[in-house]
Automatic annotation (TrEMBL):
Keywords: Signal. Belongs to the bacterial solute-binding protein SsuA/TauA family. It comes from Lichenibacterium ramalinae. Residues 65-262 form the SsuA/THI5-like domain. GO terms for cellular component: periplasmic space. This is ABC transporter substrate-binding protein. It is found in: Periplasm. It holds the Pfam family NMT1. The keyword Signal applies. PROSITE patterns: TAT.
Length: 354
């Protein structure tokens, strides 16, 4: 399912015809069937030692460190496990987290800011992945000017909506010069482009690489680095504030486990992709492996704080948020402690702020 809107209507998920408050309420109702307690243990035998956090996640390679925590049990030594809640659409990933159905989530920082603006008690505690937002166009479209009057597919209030907006701004254009079409899931958007149903799209890896390989003559207009520079943020690790207050060690264990996941991805990329494709990445193994270097994991993204805050004006202009957030949306203290307590692990990471 997709919807054509121009300009975007108010609210995080206006494409579904519902405002933020309605969607969060709906998510809370969904949460009843998921037994959304703050901490859930995976089995009685592990109850005394293992804390299992409910989580949602995205579909791009920026989630790979998060997936490694689950697939490699990297948090087990510190008494931590993850229980992923499946969501039907990209919009539901943030909605369930914002409504408190899950404890933690890896989400685009833009979705996080819409939740925060709506009053959700959440904090960004680390990064997850960088780069990997790609604008792909059909043959014959070679520049921003060629997009005039054309249809661009993306997701609402997503980093994948920010890049085309900033790409057009750089060329002296705006969303008024194009038709924006919003989609529900990553495979759906990719298939719409591959099938020739839209003129361009902004998508995440590995779906952008899949589309380029599958659509003969397709053109990569931007991978974001030409607009933002290298190592720009895509997804962040966010947690409920209550979790920080009630089980700070669990948050630290998760951050440490994600660093282990990043290190595993950096040192054995092929194994990481085998563990995640097609379980999480709905593409071929070859497509995911090719794309994996284009959207690497990066847990320590403290240096990207100002970049993240700088995109908030776009969200306000598009009426997704009412007020610009401050640095209060971040809590780097647990990341700082994990780095100080695990210097050997941190020193082995290729991508980091320090």
């Amino acid at each position: 399912m997709s919807i054509d809107l121009k300009p975007p209507a108010p609210g995080v998920f206006a494409s579904a015809g519902i405002d933020r408050r309605t969607l969060l309420a709906r998510a809370a109702c969904v949460g009843g069937s998921l037994a959304a307690s703050q901490f859930l243990c995976s089995s009685p035998a592990e109850a005394a030692t293992l804390t299992t956090l409910k989580a949602t996640h995205g579909t791009g390679l920026c989630n790979c460190p998060f997936f490694m925590v689950k697939e490699k049990d990297f948090g087990k030594a510190d008494g931590l496990a993850l229980d992923f809640v499946t969501t039907p659409t990209n919009a539901d990933i943030a909605a369930l987290f914002g409504a408190g159905v899950v404890d933690v989530s890896v989400v685009p920082y833009t979705n996080f800011m819409t939740l925060y603006d709506a009053g959700a008690p959440v904090k960004i505690v680390s990064g997850s992945g960088v780069q990997g937002c790609v604008i792909v166009a059909q043959p014959g479209i070679a520049s921003a000017q060629d997009l005039r009057g054309k249809t661009i597919g993306t997701f609402q209030a997503d980093t994948l909506e920010m890049l085309p907006l900033d790409y057009l701004k750089k060329a002296g254009m705006s969303f008024a010069d194009v038709k924006v079409r919003y989609f529900g899931t990553s495979p759906e958007l990719a298939q719409a482009f591959i099938g020739g149903n839209i003129d361009a799209m902004c998508h995440i890896e590995p779906y952008a690489s899949q589309a380029l390989a599958s659509r003969n003559g397709a053109v990569k207009l931007s991978d974001g680095t030409d607009v933002y520079g290298p190592l720009y943020t895509d997804c962040v690790l966010a947690v409920r504030s209550k979790l920080i207050q009630e089980n700070r060690p669990a948050v630290k264990a998760l951050i440490k486990a994600m660093m282990m996941g990043q290190h595993f991805e950096e040192t054995d990329r092929e194994a990481a992709i085998k563990l995640t494709t097609p379980k999480y990445f709905k593409t071929t193994f070859d497509a995911a492996l090719d794309a994996s270097t284009k959207q690497p994991g990066m847990v320590d993204q403290r240096k990207n704080q100002e970049f993240i805050l700088g995109r908030a004006q776009n969200l306000k202009d598009l009426r997704y948020i009412k007020a610009l957030p401050s640095a209060d949306i971040f809590d780097w203290s647990m990341l700082n402690e994990v780095i100080a307590e695990n210097p050997d692990l941190y020193g082995q990471l290729k991508l980091k702020s320090a």
